[in-house]
Amino acid sequence: MATITASRPKAVADAPRPNPALLAFVLNVVQKMTNNPNFPNPGTVVTDLSAAASALGIAITNKGTTKEVANALMSARQNVLDKVGHAKDFVNGAAEKAPADQAKAIIESAGFRIRKVVVRSTLPLVVEDGTLSGTAALIAHAAGKDAVYFFQVSTDQKSWTALPSVMKCKTTASGLTVGTTYYFRVQAQTRKGFGEWSGIVPFVAR
Fold it and tell me: Which residues, other chains included, contact 99 with Cβ-Cβ below 8 Å and sequence gap of 6+?
């Protein structure tokens, strides 16, 4: 089965080690995410991060040599890191729903650094030249045991003709006119019911 390889931007927490720098970083994220149109429903992500930043600020101010104060600072720092992680996951969740170029802008608008991650995805349907002229080999992504596959073909993407249903994720379309562009799609039926139609794949018969 063919796969697509692409890079996607991901938000990276990249939290500074010095506590004052960490506090500045978090306050910047809070400011950028507040009333940000890219995050219309942040829930408690921003408020939780803001509260954690306030607690860290107090702990930094009260910094001393006693063990209790040191433990309070350590606890406040860890809480901030946890909340930063939640904010990062939230931002990545929003970015994943957008195209790659928009995802980059969404992440940057939240104040996070960007790292590119390679993503590989399996194509739901591949159409290749058949062994004979005027034929096409159709290969669908396997839907599981006992699945039934319903392949369809069209020349205008409006009227669709069903090919014989098969129990395998492969079939052959024949009788195609050389030089004509055909469009194929597939739907699988499993014990859970019918799945969604795949994306439409164009193919020029040879």
Answer: none
